[in-house]
Task: inverse folding
């Protein structure tokens, strides 16, 4: 099986929320979102993730559990990224830069189309701050058995210019 391209989505400039609506429900077991961080309004910050349900409504209740590790070239690893019954999954990426140094993230989404299973994600990212390289490894779950149709990336403390390519893998 090979990855199959679904679509590309761009933010069209600096945004606080980056919505990718109706990117799932295509019959795949797994969806990969390759996120390209083009620029940020300020240094620092991070992004979290929320899902859209089948009625195109953001799931922002306390339905997410997650754990992540921030990997830094300029200091100790940060293992304090974790929460249960939270309103989002984070970090999707950490440590952005305001001078076009960019970064990238791979978000793998499992069971988005399955109404009888929880939706899981794994995330790995790499960005560059003035302090040095920053990376993340994150796992998360939406604790509701429902169809997921899209993703909202939620900025915490700044705005970002982004593009994403979405692929499907493993036809059911």
Result:
């Amino acid at each position: 099986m090979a990855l199959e391209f679904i679509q590309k989505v761009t933010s069209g400039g600096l945004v606080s929320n980056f919505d990718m609506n109706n990117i799932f429900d295509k019959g795949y077991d797994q969806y990969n979102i390759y996120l390209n961080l083009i620029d940020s309004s300020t240094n620092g910050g991070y992004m979290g993730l929320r899902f859209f349900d089948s009625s195109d409504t953001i799931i922002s209740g306390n339905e997410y559990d997650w754990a992540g590790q921030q990997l830094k070239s300029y200091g100790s690893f940060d293992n304090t990224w974790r929460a249960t019954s939270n309103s989002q999954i984070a970090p999707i990426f950490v440590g952005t830069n305001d001078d076009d140094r960019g970064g990238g993230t791979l978000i793998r989404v499992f069971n988005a189309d399955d109404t009888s299973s929880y939706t899981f994600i794994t995330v790995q990212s790499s960005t560059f701050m003035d302090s040095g390289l920053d990376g993340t490894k994150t796992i998360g779950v939406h604790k509701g058995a429902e169809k997921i149709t899209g993703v909202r990336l939620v900025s915490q403390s700044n705005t970002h210019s982004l593009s994403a390519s979405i692929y499907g893998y493993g036809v059911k």
Residues 33 and 109 are 8 Å apart (CA to CA).
